[in-house]
Structures are given as structure tokens and as C-alpha cells.
Design a protein that fits this description.
alpha/beta, single chain, 114 residues, 42% helix, four-stranded parallel beta sheet
Length: 114
């Protein structure tokens, strides 16, 4: 099972393995409070793509296309995330305010597709 959850939400036992999928550490969150098991910066969108997107829903479809292309360059990291998901619940932890238009949603969709 693959779940997606904001880092600002309270961690729960049902989250299973919590993997932070952000390039930058979330503002205002202490590492102890985030309770992430892993921080996989390398699967986050590139700095350039993140800045271009700026969480603008009008750019969403193009962001998905570009981010998916970036993820194709990370087969080992995707394989590791799939392995974690097969072993139990995997929660992709993200920082964005928009719960619909964020990179963790795209990443989860890609992981579920295979």
C-alpha cells in the first residue's frame, strides 16, 4: 500500500515506512517530530522544475510530464520505493500545502502503475 501524507500531519503507526520525498527539509519541522524513516531527496523534482512549477495548478499537466521524465532517470530509487511498498505500507511524506497538486501525488501514481 502506498499512501501520501503531509509532513505537518501527525505521524501514525498505520503510516508504515515514512519516506520524505522533498529536496529541502520542510520549514518549521524538527526531524524528531517528522518521524521519517528515510529522506530520499533524489526522487524529488529538480530545483529548476520545482521553482518553475511554483505549485501553480495551471502548470500541473506540464509539471507531471517533466517530473515523470526526471523520475525515469532514477530507476534504482524507484525500485527501492517499490520494494518498500511491497514489504508493507509506504507513506510518501511531502511538505506542499496543495494536497492535490504536488510531487508526492505524481510519485505515488508512478509507483502504483507498476
Amino acid at each position: 500500500m502506498i499512501r501520501v501524507k503531509r509532513v505537518y500531519e501527525k505521524p501514525a503507526a498505520a503510516d508504515g515506512v515514512r519516506v520524505l520525498v522533498e529536496r529541502l527539509w520542510p520549514r518549521g519541522v524538527r526531524k524528531a517530530d517528522a518521524r521519517v524513516d528515510r529522506w530520499m531527496k533524489e526522487v524529488a523534482p529538480s530545483t529548476e522544475l520545482r521553482k518553475w512549477f511554483g505549485h501553480d495548478p495551471a502548470r500541473w499537466e506540464e509539471f507531471v510530464r517533466r517530473y515523470t521524465a526526471e523520475l525515469r532517470e532514477r530507476p534504482d530509487e524507484l525500485a527501492e520505493l517499490r520494494r518498500l511498498a511491497r514489504a508493507g505500507t509506504l507513506t510518501l511524506v511531502y511538505a506542499a500545502r496543495d494536497e492535490t497538486h504536488n510531487s508526492a501525488v505524481v510519485l505515488a501514481r508512478i509507483l502504483r502503475a507498476r
